[in-house]
Sequence to fold (185 residues):
Amino acid sequence: MSKEAWLKFLEGDENSFSEVYHAYFNELFAYALKIGFDEETCKDAIQDVFFKIYVSKSQLYHIQNIEFYLLHCLKNRLFDIYKSENKITEINFHDIITENESSIIERMIKEEREIQIKKQLIHLLKSLPPKQRKIIQYHYQLNLSSKEIGELLDLSPAAVKKSIYRALKKMKEKSSLFSRQDSSI
Fold:
């Protein structure tokens, strides 16, 4: 329903914007509270995100996953607010310049390894059924508890835990298949 409302909003239907807002507000609010912001800051950040979306809707046709996009925008807005409230008062230029070649190479290797792991993880997540994928994302990306996820998805906490267990088991099994294939190459 909210994806349809999103598409209608992009096509110019103003009422659909309200549907998108109401469909995602509670999820965004729970996420913002979970990462440690007070209620008023959370509400302000959500309003800022939706205002920016409303103003720039002509540039948003490429957005495929509105839920992920909203969460990403909200996280960025909250961190912008945090940075503006906690401005850096002193910069130590010596610390910035002293990075040597070996640490740069180590960082590049680490980043490359992280990229490979991230790609494999994305592939594993895509192999899960949509509901399990959403539960895993809520649990690990948003750090929501089983009870909170259950409330959002109308499931019991036990059902959420069972779904997490099964999803992780599937991902582990497929992951071991990847590592066997990689070693044979």
In short: The radius of gyration is 20 Å.
